[in-house]
Design brief:
The chain is of the alpha+beta class. The protein has 16 helices and 23 strands. A hairpin with a 6-residue loop joins strand 8 and strand 9. The longest helix is centred in the middle third of the chain and has 15 residues.
């Protein structure tokens, strides 16, 4: 899934949605027998290319990935509200730093009471630490990976502390409480004001954050310190934590990270293991070899090695897919002037969608482990936000319907097998604005190279499209060359018509779309109706608001919906217990224990 993304929660590795090519049997389960090993060391495999490399909780855009958002920061610094209960993508009251908010002032003001957590230096986590975070967030919002214009912190008009453990936040309007509780308030991460409110390493602690200029100076200092990776395990700043672990060793070159339990952690579950080691790898092959040698307790099967699942189940491991609450799609490059007139026609987007055979691909290419994507709200795991329309799929695989749509708008397949426009114009039975007579229905489409399942999907899609006269040139491309956000130069060739380099993993079970389908996201797509629909999901607690938003995009096709797959196929030693693979990517090794 997407490595850099503007949203709450977890962004998975770029190829996480395409890990499957061969069958593996039913997921094995760890047993709970045997004597507990006190102080055990557990090794966890980092996904290649997604190492932890940003420790400051106001995470920069280019570091907004799961290596930081799941596997580093939450072990040290806990959010106000924790998302992920068991495997479900829902709020977890038990692991949250605060009790549920109460609302007043017509719903504009949320009053929140903190539980009694403490920092590892012995001072309590207080309202002042929440204020400190919000002041610095405002100072650094343009660099923050979770920022969307108008959302947190822009929508806060006042913060009032009512004492050490209680405070009120007043918003600029009455928002839907479910949106605030699932999408906004979880983004608040109290930070230790008594240790971090300074502007230089040798400077005194003050209240600098309480002026805009001072907050900017403190933010710049802490942000710079976070970019000095070599001091992560030694910098006194990062020693002050309220999470269940301390970072004790870190290699800035490889991303190797070692943790021990935080003895002052005040949460409901204290870590039972003695050491957590996050192991980096230079390639999936290296990770697989380490896993097979027994050097990894909790790893994953790379794409090319899934046929080895039975080996691991026979040698003391459980093989379990780690589902992600997300969607997968092909981004249309709406900024490309050469093909935008084609993409502007809904019937052409419909034809492209109608030749995506999701059920067959899930069965034959993803070997049953995938799941369909029919719109902007994930179908798996189940939540109350899937509309009847999306659940039914408005565009099931239907090449005949695709052919009829094209023919009805003046496209005719010639001797070369490619449809060309024979009725230019803007009438309902013509090709559409900006499409000239004789224009071919042809596109370039990029996908990540080196992944067998992607290659298989795209070759089948190309073949399906050719049967209705759509000429797809599919181009395997290394990830760094696949972005679609750069506009094409007028009059110059542009190969980026459509791209699939990403999926989108939501950070909450309330998929309102503001971080995915609002400008400037999604290849430059813009719709005032869509923007209004997204805004409505922020203001209404009714599921109808989400249904209206998702139904519009499910039918309008700002992207081409594409089947999704688990974030990874995990391989977990059966003597490691308490592992829960949450769909939001919540990582809770404090629950783990090891038996002999």
């Amino acid at each position: 899934m997407r490595v850099v993304s503007r949203r709450w929660g977890v962004a998975w590795a770029a190829l996480g949605a395409a890990l499957l090519v061969t069958a593996c049997g039913p997921a094995a389960s760890a047993t709970s027998g045997g004597a507990v090993v006190p102080g055990a060391t557990v090794t966890f495999a980092q996904q290649v290319g997604n190492i932890p490399n940003y420790i400051f909780p106001i995470t920069a855009v280019n570091a907004f990935a799961s290596g930081n958002l799941s596997f580093l920061q939450p072990l040290l610094f806990r959010p106000l509200y924790w998302l992920g209960t068991g495997a479900s993508p829902v709020l977890n009251p038990q692991l949250s730093l605060a009790n549920a908010p109460t609302f007043s002032n017509g719903g504009r003001t949320a009053t929140i009471t903190l539980k009694h957590y403490v920092w590892s230096d012995g001072t309590p986590v207080t309202s002042r630490d929440v204020q400190f975070f919000l002041n610095l967030l405002k100072a650094g919002e343009q660099n923050w990976g979770g920022y969307a214009v108008g959302d947190l912190p822009d929508n806060i008009v006042s913060f009032v502390a009512h004492g050490q453990y209680s405070f009120s936040i007043t918003f600029n309007k009455v928002y839907a409480q479910q949106w605030l509780l699932n999408n906004q308030l979880p983004g608040i991460i109290p930070m230790p004001q008594q240790a971090w409110d300074k502007t230089s390493a040798g400077g005194a602690i003050g209240n600098y954050d309480q002026t805009p200029a001072g907050a900017t100076a403190v933010y710049n200092f802490l942000n710079h310190q976070s970019m000095t990776l070599s001091t992560y395990a030694t910098n006194p700043l990062w020693k002050v934590v309220d999470g269940p672990f301390h970072l004790t060793s870190y290699n800035p070159t490889t991303g190797y990270a070692a943790f021990v339990p935080n003895k002052r952690y005040a949460g409901p579950v204290k870590a039972k293991i003695g050491h957590l080691i996050e192991l980096p790898f230079t390639s999936n092959t290296a990770e697989f070899n380490a896993l097979r040698s027994g050097a990894v307790d909790y790893g994953y099967l790379p794409t090319t090695d899934l046929s080895q699942a039975s080996y691991f189940t026979a040698h003391g491991y459980a093989v379990q897919p780690w589902p992600g609450y997300g969607i997968n799609y092909l981004t249309i490059n709406w900024s490309n002037p050469q093909v935008r007139p084609l993409f502007n026609q809904l019937y052409i987007r419909q034809a492209l969608q109608l030749v995506v055979d999701q059920p067959l691909w899930i069965k034959d290419i993803l070997k049953g482990y995938g799941y369909p994507v029919d719109g902007p709200v994930p179908l798996v795991p189940k939540t109350p936000f899937v509309s009847p329309l999306e659940a039914k799929n408005p565009y099931p695989y239907d090449p005949s319907r695709a052919s009829s749509l094209l023919a009805a708008h003046g496209w005719k397949v010639g001797s070369g097998g490619v449809a060309t426009c024979t009725r230019p114009g803007t009438a309902s039975n013509q090709c559409g604005a900006g499409i000239a007579a004789g224009a071919p229905l042809a596109f370039n489409a990029l996908y990540p190279s080196g992944v067998q399942s992607f290659t298989a999907e795209w070759e089948v899609w190309k073949s399906n499209a050719s049967k209705v006269g759509i000429d797809l040139t599919v181009i395997p491309t290394p990830l760094p060359g696949m972005g679609v956000g750069v506009p094409c130069i007028s009059g110059s060739p542009c190969t980026k018509d459509m791209v699939n380099w990403e999926g989108w993993g939501f950070g909450s079970a309330y998929p309102d779309g503001s971080q995915v389908f609002s400008p400037p996201e999604t290849g430059g797509y813009y719709s005032s109706t869509n923007n209004a629909n997204i805004n409505a999901t922020h203001l209404s607690n009714s599921s109808n608001a989400v249904f209206r938003y998702e139904n519009y995009l499910a039918t309008q096709l700002p992207v081409i919906w594409w089947p999704n797959a688990p974030s990874q196929i995990s391989v977990i030693r059966t003597t490691l217990h308490g592992v829960v693979q949450n769909a939001l990517g919540s990582f809770t090794p404090e629950y783990w224990w090891v038996t002999k």
